[in-house]
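Co-fold these.
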Amino acid sequence: ETGVTQTPRHLVMGMTNKKSLKCEQHLGHNAMYWYKQSAKKPLELMFVYSLEERVENNSVPSRFSPECPNSSHLFLHLHTLQPEDSALYLCASSQDMGGDYEQYFGPGTRLTVT
Amino acid sequence: GEDVEQSLFLSVREGDSSVINCTYTDSSSTYLYWYKQEPGAGLQLLTYIFSNMDMKQDQRLTVLLNKKDKHLSLRIADTQTGDSAIYFCAESFGGYNKLIFGAGTRLAVHP
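Predicted complex below.
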């Protein structure tokens, strides 16, 4: 596979469930990102990892817990979510941090919280 | 705080030019970007412009930057049906490439 892949592509979960979103990049990049795209708000940056260290936690509730075990994989662990957390969650990666490094996006996971 | 604004919808006839506009608030942005999102897909970087440039052209795409007015535009020449998508303007903020996105402009191309 090439580029940035995300699994699952669709997820429906109850408010008491625990689930995880997975992102994998095959580009040899050092930085990875989680974004939330909801219907009524612009795309929002949630987390940034560089060389497996978190460098940004953009005021995200603790019910979202990221994990970056290595530079190729990024997870978003979800627990006790709310219906307003339903959104498209996009993962991205870039060679390094800095504005001149293009971010490559995955196709996203469409999450529905019931 | 940072803010990026775009009009939400644009409809054009096939073969015409499309112009998508964007305004931003952070004058310290180094790079400004245009992304395209097709249905069911992630974001694809179309082009970007460095803040000390006024214009950048790449095949059918022309980006104009008015830094004084904090206005960015994307012109698509000879618009095709395959250009139908949502176009996001974004500015780069901070040393770790934090992107602030606009809400996106939905471009509809009709025959």
